[in-house]
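Recall that a protein's primary structure is simply its ordered list of amino acids. Everything else, from secondary elements to tertiary packing, is in principle encoded there. The following example makes that idea concrete.
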Amino acid sequence: RKKDGTWPSAQLHVMNKHMSEEDEDFKGQPGICGLTNLGNTCFMNSALQCLSNVPQLTEYFLNNCYLEELNFRNPLGMKGEIAEAYADLVKQAWSGHHRSIVPHVFKNKVGHFASQFLGYQQHDSQELLSFLLDGLHEDLNRVKKKEYVELCDAAGRPDQEVAQEAWQNHKRRNDSVIVDTFHGLFKSTLVCPDCGNVSVTFDPFCYLSVPLPISHKRVLEVFFIPMDPRRKPEQHRLVVPKKGKISDLCVALSKHTGISPERMMVADVFSHRFYKLYQLEEPLSSILDRDDIFVYEVSGRIEAIEGSREDIVVPVYLRERTPARDYNNSYYGLMLFGHPLLVSVPRDRFTWEGLYNVLMYRLSRYVSKPNSDDEDDGDEKEDDEEDKDDVPGPSTGGSLRDPEPEQAGPSSGVTNRCPFLLDNCLGTSQWPPRRRRKQLFTLQTVNSNGTSDRTTSPEEVHAQPYIAIDWEPEMKKRYYDEIEAEGYVKHDCVGYVMKKAPVRLQECIELFTTVETLEKENPWYCPSCKQHQLATKKLDLWMLPEILIIHLKRFSYTKFSREKLDTLVEFPIRDLDFSEFVIQPQNESNPELYKYDLIAVSNHYGGMRDGHYTTFACNKDSGQWHYFDDNSVSPVNENQIESKAAYVLFYQRQDVARRLLSPAGSSGAPASPACNSPP
């Protein structure tokens, strides 16, 4: 990105007449030609540059071989228009007369036949590539009238026989330069878990979409708020299972703090309020990486049980009274500030007076008590001194003794009404009703947003209310230490970084060929059981194409999140050996049939919502690698190609490269794509 946050080629470049005149006299290396970004079309440019650098396909169009094979009547095709638009683009790019070209006509054709690519939204280069290969195939299909072909199961026959039959059936309906160049053959094996029936079929493929090994762990940063007011909040970095529950987060935090998981409550804090209070059984996937997660040490529960002697956990907000800024004074000029609290209140202290004392204790690290000089008169001073004895210190463990006999205790009969609703226990929604002595703040029951009096929300009357601590500006300035309130300490674990080890491309291919069980949404109908089954499925490679496209599945989608995997995949530039993955009996006398050299890479930089596509490609004539970034093209070295951005890989089989080197293979004499030095 540039310093202003934009991508290098994110804006439309207008090609004026002067540039066109310059291009007429320009003479450069054929194929070294940029593509103008029409507005979020870098995905299309990347796919086109990769495909343009496939030697045999480009020679096919440059030599006008496509003119004899255009299929205008194929109902599955695009009346030859996609093939003709692509041919024009290739001819311009390989003429050597242009530094860059504007693929406007091609973009319009794609949008016309594939409405998902209409407009100027960002898309996936692999999805466009899939559409383009299919469109070119149907436009250039040599089969003018497709016959009906019945798919046959192996039924115990030898694999060689079934595979040959499947390929012949495929060619009876699909025969084009795309099939010749890009199509291979899978072996698919399904096994019924009930009857053990085995189904073997052979299916063609145009590219391999291989998964990346995914870590089953994730790192979450949380703030732990201890009950002891002398201790500052602690920042922790926890390693938790991706598919775990909130309880797993509490267990991981317990190992750092020594506090039992049963004494923890997890909350998502947003804009000075509780956005969500999590239950222990909720999935961790509902927590996003950007969420501010606070874990509170508590000694009770929010959903108090009648007759229980457990402490009651009360959500508490901090508000400051400010002058109303508009004519609508519905919010009473109260603004939330600071971090909310979950405060454990003993039942015998569940009064306004008791709650005030508990809060003074919990806030004592950053809220100072008024001294005797602050009192209004002697009586208030005596009352305050008397109450000071009731404020628990650290040694009392938080238990509070109530000196006033009229306040409700557990045996006073108040619990028979509703022990956990403040409305019943406290009798009023606001405190203090009268100023008996100088209080630092007032208390108010509010809704979960903390923005209005709870009495205005009838639907919340029977729910546990939230408490707001309301400060006058002068009192807050005098007694509330904002710097201390925001202070926290970092646990040693914060320095931990979960390293993402690089993976080899071969590991991704192994994962692709691993046995998997079908998902509930995609069951298999077993012809033996006569019902849908969650069968086991295994894919094997039987026959490989001349050009092998490998799509790295970097984008992961779940119910709660979408993420991009930025794992570094190590892939070879030369000699990618597939002999261990191909199960067809091999021709040992010709090992080149299973070895591949890299010729192009489509890169994706950025995340899910924004990003940029570029291309590395090897020129078929010079053998030099270049970096294509929309209309900008620059030479690069081989050691620059491998990166975390690699998304789609194009490999050429070595026997094909050798064939193209021979004079009969093409009109020119292209160098080996593995060669990186100019002639």
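The first strand starts at residue 34 and ends at 35. The two ends are 34 Å apart (CA to CA).
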